[in-house]
Amino acid sequence: MMEYESLIALGVFAVICLTAASTGAKYGPDEWYRSIDKPWWIPPNWAFAPAWMLFYTLLAVAGWVAWREGGGSAANPLPAALFVPLALYVLHVITNAVWSPLFFGMHRIDYALIDSAAMWLTLVATIFAFAEVSTLATWLLVIYLGWVTFAFLLNLSVLRLNRDRLPETAPTRH
């Protein structure tokens, strides 16, 4: 049976990931999104919510497993061996949370692509850091990396199809 402190830690990881997911709930497909060009291979809109729910769950469980297997406890919530892995993890979650406001909120497909690249890089760094702590947590993130890679390629394709629709960043002078 799981200890009480471990359940609390799992709850903390779930709240961290749900907080990141909340930006996707606030900023979602709108009229602008429906009007832009998308690649033929994009999944239907209804598929994104369950996919992200699955991947946020994997992300939360991976963080929790790494915390447990890395020696995290109520007495020592952040052992030295976990500082870098969990800092990278939090950085990844932040880059994940920023994507929806950039893409759907600001309609900046280009900025969202930069963020998507940062999301991919921070996830790869987290995977390598977690590999020193937990095999299970590492593999959970590797599964999630497949989705993040797909999302990056999708963002890149949408950018290529809509370069002419990007808002201007600064007024042009003639």
Automatic annotation (TrEMBL):
GO terms for cellular component: membrane. CDD domains: TSPO_MBR. Coiled coil: none annotated. Its main location: membrane. InterPro entries: TspO/MBR-related_sf (IPR038330), TspO_MBR (IPR004307). The chain crosses the membrane at residues 6-25, 46-67, 79-99, 111-130, 136-156. Keywords: Membrane, Transmembrane, Transmembrane helix. Pfam families: TspO_MBR. It is found in: Membrane. This is Tryptophan rich sensory protein TspO homologue.
